[in-house]
Amino acid sequence: MLAQARETVPAPGALPGEQRFQPKWDGYRALVFTPWPPSPGPLLLQSRRGSLLHSRFPDLVTAAAHLPDGLVLDGELVVWAQGQMSFEALQRRAASSGRTAARLAVETPAHFIAFDLLQLDGQELLHVPYGERRATLEHLFVDRELRAPWTLCPETTDVAVAQEWLASWTQVPGVEGLVIRGSDQRYRPGARALYKVRRRETTEAVIGAVTGTVRRPRTLVLGRLDAAGALRPVARSTPLRPEVARDLAERLMPAQPDHHPWEGVRFTTSWGSRTSLDVVLVEPDLVAEIAVDTALERGSWRHPVRFARLRLDITVANVPPFGAGAGGPARG
After folding, report:
1. Contact 45, 30 (CB under 8 A)
2. For residue 70, what is the domain's CATH number?
3. What pTM, to 2 d.p., does this model score?
């Protein structure tokens, strides 16, 4: 069951029943299956796209001894590294196998944050209202005295508390917003029947390249200067609105041959992808104000950012440096 993006917390009545708010975690969505007699077997960990991941997370397989048989949990797989949640460490673990998987399980332990219960004692619960499923999930954690790596996702019905989570919890790496459910909702696999609200902030970056053409730009590739003064890629924008593209086309200039800092740099279509992206380099002298979320990894935003406007009142030197995140307002 998936979520559709919203810019703000929806008004009461947008979802069936009472609104339930949970933190939105920046991990891998996954399902946990425990065996149901007479079918023996280990815990199965399945990604949102259907891939089986349990061989890469042996620590979770071992911890399955604390779970009852015939259980299906829906939740988020996260990894703890250097005192905080790390998406990069999660990616390393998801790509590991054999001895490497066993070593990483010790060095960067995984946690499964459960936010829904789909089956208990072999009994499917998809048609049970969410409020009842949540109450059963809470009882499961109490009755089984479940501890890490199994974690019960926090939840509130108080809008003020949810807004505080959105403002303060998203300052912690690994939390990027809210997910909103309705207490009367049934579980609808594949349907975008939930809502998600990401925390967004505005900041600045340099336009270094475009997709499409200079006269008809489709998206922007953005950068920031590092400590050595080199322009480093930090984000790609969502598709530009036609009127925005026309305005930018009047100001963008093709880069001079062999003078652009990204000459020869290979870009990909998205974070973690190996598919090449064709870009046109432009003179890196225009500053864009952009709206970003909290999914920042190694100085770059994993999700597409939104172009807000050109900042013709500031120069490239005023843009927050590479690695500064949203970095507050532009300097100068």
Report:
1. yes
2. 3.30.470.30
3. 0.76
